[in-house]
């Protein structure tokens, strides 16, 4: 009964894992695998899984934080430019001049002239707050420490991911070996039960002996399904964490 509850809990667990990744991801379809397919699964190299895990959201988020701190460091190194300022202006247009002329012999008359003119101004200024100047070197140093902290945090996250991958990888490797043995045991138990059925039909054995063989087959089947469940769970979580398909298409 506990094993059955575990089988129903697997889809819900994987749904939660996919929700945490932030976006949908294709996972291999293990429901269509036969008993032989399971025993022929080959795991990718650990180095490949580690490298592909860098495409996951946990590592990418830490990488983005590191890049943000680096950008802020570059900004702090240019902060001294804020002590200086440049200003300038430029004007261009048609200017008009209106005038009136008269003398003793002439009646007053109006004249109007236009002329294109342009003009510009350029200036610079310096404003150096003492607190900003004295704290500039310290701000750069603090930001360098922030960059180093972000890089270390990224490495810590990656180490945690690698430990989780190693745990799942070793579990899957162990279950692959166990599954092969239990598959052989199940095949033998099923064969024994088939022989027992024929002997029961031919009245060679009684129902009690047939029941014993059926029980052995059921125990072998339950052990095989339990190993298959543990292996499937480990492989599917590995695919989520490492962004690496395990099954060959």
From TrEMBL:
Protein name: TolC family protein
Organism listed in the record: Jilunia laotingensis
Keyword Signal: yes
Regions annotated as coiled coil: 133-162
Subcellular localization(s) per the UniProt record: Cell outer membrane
InterPro entries xrefs: TolC-like
Keywords in alphabetical order: Cell outer membrane, Coiled coil, Membrane, Signal, Transmembrane, Transmembrane beta strand
GO CC entries: cell outer membrane; efflux pump complex
């Amino acid at each position: 009964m506990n094993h059955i509850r575990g089988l129903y809990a697997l889809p819900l667990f994987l749904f939660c894992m996919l929700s945490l990744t932030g976006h949908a991801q294709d996972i291999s379809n293990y429901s269509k695998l036969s008993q032989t397919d399971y025993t022929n699964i080959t795991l990718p190299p650990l180095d490949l899984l580690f490298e592909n895990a860098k495409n996951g959201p946990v590592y990418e988020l830490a990488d983005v934080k590191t890049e943000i701190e680096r950008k802020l460091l570059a900004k702090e190194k240019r902060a001294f430019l804020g002590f200086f300022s440049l200003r300038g202006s430029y004007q261009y247009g048609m200017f008009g001049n209106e005038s009136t002329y008269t003398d003793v012999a002439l009646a007053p008359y109006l004249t109007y002239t236009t002329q294109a003119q342009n003009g510009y101004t350029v200036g610079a200024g310096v404003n150096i707050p003492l607190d900003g100047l004295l704290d500039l070197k310290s701000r750069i140093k603090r930001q360098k420490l922030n960059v180093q902290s972000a890089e270390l945090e990224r490495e810590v996250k990656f180490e945690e991911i690698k430990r989780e991958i190693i745990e799942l990888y070793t579990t899957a490797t162990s279950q692959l070996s166990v599954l092969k043995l239990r598959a052989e045991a199940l095949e033998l138990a099923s064969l024994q039960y088939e022989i027992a059925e024929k002997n029961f039909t031919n009245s060679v054995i009684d129902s009690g002996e047939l029941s014993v063989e059926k029980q052995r087959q059921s125990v072998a089947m339950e052990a095989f399904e339990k190993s298959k469940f543990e292996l499937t769970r480990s492989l599917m979580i590995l695919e989520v964490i490492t962004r690496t398909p395990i099954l060959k298409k």
